[in-house]
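[Discussion] Sanity-checking designs against the backbone

I'm trying to build intuition for which residues belong where. Below is a structure token string of 91 positions. I'd appreciate it if someone posts a full sequence so I can compare it with mine line by line.
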């Protein structure tokens, strides 16, 4: 499912216009992103939790040339599925 399909499903289920459904989805995604940017954990009970993992810098290797490359520290979002989601997918 992509964003457009999610908007269509919301439109159909809630009986609202496509524009209103798009606005709801956009607000939802922006709110999650804003929370992650400031370091907060996003948790949707039964579905998932998303949090930021900090990775330290390290020396990597360019697979094409074999030269050593410095990889800078970074922050990446980490998705962890909830118990109910695991059970529904793995029924």
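Best answer:
Here's mine. Compare freely.
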């Amino acid at each position: 499912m992509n964003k457009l399909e999610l908007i269509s499903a919301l439109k159909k289920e809630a009986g609202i216009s496509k524009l209103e459904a798009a606005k709801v989805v956009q607000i939802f995604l922006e709110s999650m992103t804003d929370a992650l940017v400031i370091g907060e954990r996003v948790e949707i009970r039964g579905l998932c939790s998303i949090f930021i993992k900090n990775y330290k810098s390290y020396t990597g290797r360019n697979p094409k040339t074999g030269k050593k490359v410095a990889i800078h520290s970074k922050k990446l979002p980490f998705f962890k599925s909830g118990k109910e989601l695991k059970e529904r997918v793995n029924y």
